[in-house]
Amino acid sequence: MDKIETIKETITELLEIMDFQGRINIDTSNENNILVNIQTDQASFLIGQAGANLEALQYIARVLASKKVGAPVQFILDVNDYQKHHIGLLEELARDIAKQALSERIAVTLQPMSAFKRRIVHLALADDSQISTESIGQEPERRIVVKPIK
């Protein structure tokens, strides 16, 4: 069984165990960010307050899929495009902060954010040859510094 089939099977099993109904779509167009979206009428329960349930569900699904494959399996779990919308906002924020850092020639420090959100910001600016990013601090206060390359 390949990685994509394993991810789909794992999430299907989790939904059944939790007694949730949903349709699973997997977008593999970007192999660095496999996006697994659950379409459901029960989204609010799966997402939780500020996405807390979704983060926990993603963690559990990754651990179970990784055990089945025998190697780490990374993917983004989404419900009714909740994450996709937030990823778009984070990417937009990253580009805006990069413009500010370049125009003012200063380092800009972002608010603390989860590892998942930091990764989105790092990836959004990875191809910008004029900008560098780094994570600083300790969890849960870990944050990103965006600075122009001199």
**How would you state the average pLDDT, rounded?**
93
Strand runs, count: 6
For the record, the CATH class of the largest domain is Alpha Beta
Specify the helix fraction band.
40-55%
Q: Radius of gyration from the CA trace?
A: 17 Å
Main sheet record: 3 strands, mixed
Question: How far apart, in Å, are the first and last alpha carbons?
Answer: 48 Å
**Strand content bin:** 15-25%
By secondary-structure content and strand pairing, the structural class works out as alpha+beta
The total of helices stands at: 5
Neighbour order of strands in the largest sheet: 1-2-3
Please tell me the total number of domains.
Answer: 2
Q: Low-confidence parts lasting 5 or more residues at pLDDT below 50?
A: none
Give structural notes.
This protein is α+β, with helices and mostly antiparallel strands and 150 residues long. The protein has two domains: 3-80, K homology (KH) domain (GMP Synthetase, Chain A, domain 3); 85-148, Ribosomal Protein S8, Chain: A, domain 1, CATH 3.30.1370.50. 48% of the residues lie in helices and 19% in strands. It is built from five helices and six strands; from the N terminus they run αββααβαβαββ. It has helices spanning 3-17, 43-47, 52-69, 82-104, 115-125, and strands at residues 23-27, 35-39, 76-79, 108-109, 131-136, 143-148. The mean pLDDT is 93.
Question: Quick summary of this structure?
Answer:
The protein has helices spanning 3-17, 43-47, 52-69, 82-104, 115-125, and strands at 23-27, 35-39, 76-79, 108-109, 131-136, 143-148.
